[in-house]
Amino acid sequence: MAVEMDRHDGYTIDTKYWHTLADGRIQCDVCPRACKLREQQRGLCFVRGRVDDRVVLTTYGRSSGYCVDPIEKKPLAHFLPGTPVLSFGTAGCNLACRYCQNWDISKSREIDTLADEASPEAIARAALKLNCRSVAFTYNDPTIFLEYARDTAIACHELGIRTVAVTAGYICPEPRAELFAHLDAANIDLKAFTEDFYRHVTGSSLASVLDTLRYVRHETDTWLELTTLLIPGYNDSDQEIDAMTRWVVEELGPDVPMHFSAFHPDYRMTDVPPTPPETLRRARRIAMENGVNFAYVGNVHDPEAEQTLCPRCGEVVIGRDWYEISTYNLTDDGRCANCGATIAGRFEGPVGHWGRRRLPVNLHLLAGST
Questions:
Q1: Contact status, residue 209 vs residue 216, Cβ threshold 8 Å
Q2: I need a labelling partner for 86 at 20 to 30 A (CA). Which of 156, 183, 258, 358 fits?
């Protein structure tokens, strides 16, 4: 799919993942969608397009907004628990999910959605000023603003700030290697476990996502967690959850946390009912029976299903109530305080105490404050 584009030269940079086809079109090589573009056309993501015989990113340095969140909201349960993360996204998306929960951002075709401007260095300085331990590329997929995410990650690391991606994992191998080389953690959506769902509900491919999951788990140092939004009648059968969780244990290992989240009617699937809480609990139970050590539920209030248990002794090492840390029984280096077992994750020093607060941030006002 390609659409005509306007110039936004103030926020446009050249990209390198593309090649010219025999018929004169240019193919974007960032994701497996492989959009083939004529002059002044954009790809399905809307933010990468062809200008003067090259592919450019039109949203570099622009965001749909900034907000300080609890890291648990990404969701990441085993990465710097209790700490605040500075979150931002841009516009557009390279998937076509019919149920998108952030459709006003990810499906935006209005560049004016991107009201906030900030350089990678300004974002890193803001995170430091706000005492955020990390910066998250989220709300829409960082795959499509790869260059902006990469440069922001580099700027963050220079100041000791970690970086996190919330992504669908639908990305080609070469840009994938570049992006994940700069990421400290990622939550990747495993949206379902059938090609039929991926093709007809998201407009993408399961095989490509599974390849990304294997790559991140086995060929990078990026901490990995998974999220599956369970949609009644679409991807919530016992058989599919069983197959998915068995694959995770066999291919990724038992220590990769899985989050099962509740769907609510939105975008083009307003006729589908919300996910019953029992569906989430059932998925968690199947996952744990299949050997997943850390399985959680999300978008519902269920403190028991939000807690982290030590796989060796069964004691609660992290208790949660929504995004609030209620119990913390880990040593500073991430060991169970009861039996000494190492808990998989990235635990550095004492637990944070950010809680469930959500703090919108104006980076320009912040930069001018003392």
A1: no
A2: 258
One-letter amino acid for residue 128 of the chain: L
What would the two tokens of residue 321 be? Answer: 């109530």
Domains of the chain: 3-57 (no CATH), 62-294+350-359 (3.20.20.70)
Instruction: State the Cα–Cα distance between residues 85 and 67, nearest whole angstrom.
Output: 8
The Cβ of residue 239 has, within 10 Å, a number of other Cβ atoms equal to: 9
Name the residue type at position 44.
Answer: L
pTM: 0.94
